[in-house]
Amino acid sequence: MKILVVCQYYYPENFSITSLCEEWVRLGHEVLVVTGKPNYGYGRILEGYEDVVDEEIHGVRVHRVSLSPRKESKLSIIKNYLSFWLHSKRYLSHLKESFDVVYSMSLSPVISIAGANRYAKKHHVKHILHCLDLWPESVSVTGAVSKKNPLFGILYLWSKMLYAKTDKILVSSPSFEEYFRKVLKLKKHPIQYLPQPPFLAQPQGDAVSYSHRYNIVYAGNLGTLQLIENLAKATLIAAKSEDVVLHVMGMGARAKALETFVEEQHASENIALYGTRPRGVAATFYPNSTAIVVTLKQDGVVGKTIPSKLVSSLSYGRPILASIGGDGRTVLEDAGGTVFSKGETPEELAEAILNLCRMSDEEREEAGRKNAAYFSEHFSLSTIATSTLDELK
Question: What is the DSSP letter of 306?
Fold first, then answer.
């Protein structure tokens, strides 16, 4: 097949869309990705990409449209979203090359798929959307826009219109379907559950050796939904009883607040902050870790989802320490290698950390084996790539 892919993010930005497209090429398909210039997590257009328009990466053709770089301010994020919406739609409106199907992966924002809808309609081909993030629900949950704000109503209508124009929606969590049916009122639109592609990387270097007894690793977005500050507080509570360290990598809205907390509490001995690290470097922290942390605040529909971090965490063959509900909890319960927190407070998270520490080495190794086996059966890249291709035919 000849597949047109539309996604605002692509390598060197760290998203699973890259692995999926490269796997499709490996399987003999031709792929063109329409994306933006890499900026997510950098606060600027990545050096060397300012003038890059067309390139080929591991057999995948990539076209990059101009956009305003995403920085920390809300205004910069809005400009980032709108600039990709405008420039991708303009490019795809004039793209004459023929494709068998259009596939878009929707993270935030959903308006990024507008150009895919336009191309599909103009060229009379199907547009299959893989929805990994619900709009406008995620805007409300993150606190960006209150549901009482008139702007939320505009985003609701805009999102519903964009979703309705697709030919089929693949949802990365089963609970998403309820949102589409009951909230967005798309009662007859074709919807199918299909897990998101795994977000993996080969370790770049030797496995990290730790000097402390228990080492739990968090790598990912440092935001409100991830309970990162409660996790830090929980670590200090647990550290009163056990030799435990929380290793944190990532960036996000609560990164500076976390840094301030560690400084004020003089907690650098038990909370190690590494900033943003490449996926391959982060992967070196997992093999000798006591557990990998998966946390998601249980608010609204978004709090019921299967986050990408959960899928990748299963693959590393380590126990998981989790505070999560909904579909994500169901997956981890089925896998059988997770220690769950009873709630989201620092005290409840600390109790879960201590329960993890009190397991025997053999019990933790068995938990890791269960997680790796579950990943291989349900979430491997080859499995997801093949299943997605079946939906595109």
Answer: -
Taking 90 as the threshold, does the pLDDT of residue 139 lie above it? no
Q: How far apart are CA 201 and CA 262, in angstroms?
A: 29
The sign of the CA dihedral 191, 193, 197, 198 is positive
- DSSP characters for 4-65? EEE-S--TTS--THHHHHHHHHHTT-EEEEEEE-S-TTTTSPPTT-TT--EEEETTEEEEEE
How far is the C-alpha of 60 from the C-alpha of 237, rounded, in Å? Answer: 48
| Cα angle: 300, vertex 306, 307; to 5 degrees | 95
Question: Pick the residue with more confidence: 50 or 200?
Answer: 50
- Note the pLDDT tens digit of each residue in 162-190: 999 999 999 999 999 999 999 999 999 99
The verdict on whether omega for the bond into residue 109 sits within 30 degrees of 0, i.e. cis, is yes
Bridge partner residues of 342 (DSSP): none
Task: With cut-offs at 50, 70 and 90, classify the pLDDT of residue 74.
Answer: confident
User: Tokens 């609560």 identify what position?
Assistant: 254
d(CA 341, CA 328): 13
